[in-house]
Amino acid sequence: MDFSHELIVPEAGFPFKLFIFEGKDGNYYRDRHWHRSVEIFAVCGGELEFHIADRLWHLTPGEFMIVNSNEIHSVDSPLPNETIVLQIPLKLFENYYTGEQFVWFTHEPGRRDDRFMELIKALYRTYSEKPCGYDMKMNSIFYQIMYLLVKDYRLTEADDESVRRNKNLNRLSAITSYMKENYAGDITLEEVARVFDYSPNYLSRMFRKYAGITFKSYVQNIRLEYALKELESGKYSITEIAVRSGFSGSKALARAFQKKYGMLPSEYRSRMSGSVKKQKD
Q1: CA angle (225, 230, 231) in 5-degree steps
Q2: Which UniProt keywords apply (predicted)?
Q3: What residues have CB less than 8 Å from 160, skipping those under 6 apart?
């Protein structure tokens, strides 16, 4: 299982981040990951699939998914879709915590789902059109969404195991953020353990137990994610990308890339170039 931590940065001037899902064109899969913010996917067209814990959720137009803070999940969008994503920093819910930095929302459909979807759509429409005073209108809509979240979707009881897991994933979030900042260097388990004042054995167990992945595999996944972005940009050669991403060379990158994505970096770059050319034509 390959899990990773995703860092969420709020929209400039607003206490949230709002955008159209990056998998809107289809043929997209986001590996299992987690983040400290609450994330809402509102499907307006097409379909999406979510894997959360051991359950599969299939979303169709008019449905949405609330992904909790530190909830490990993956997203699959094989076909084109229209999905609005709203990401809310966990801190905004601090008055409603049911445990230590812990708040939890249900995934089950609620009686106010139609109203909730209307508000998400209105928020994005206002953001896109930017009428006079749109910033005040957006904040007004956003806090109506927040009200429904805490009133109709928040669970008021938390079990000890969920709170404990949340606490440990919070710790891992800080560690993985550090790793993402230093992925290009010779980053080791011993070095990261020293920085965060853990023993290497304890840190290794934390990754296995709470993130479901080894430290070494996590580092490699980070490097592959950045290599993928560099390949898409077309700015550097594959050898340069390997070095910039922290691999020992192009052969090491090729082995890891093929194992994870089922093709060589050169094949992926060719496919991307062909796709861009087709769109231009």
Answers
A1: 95
A2: DNA-binding, Transcription, Transcription regulation
A3: none
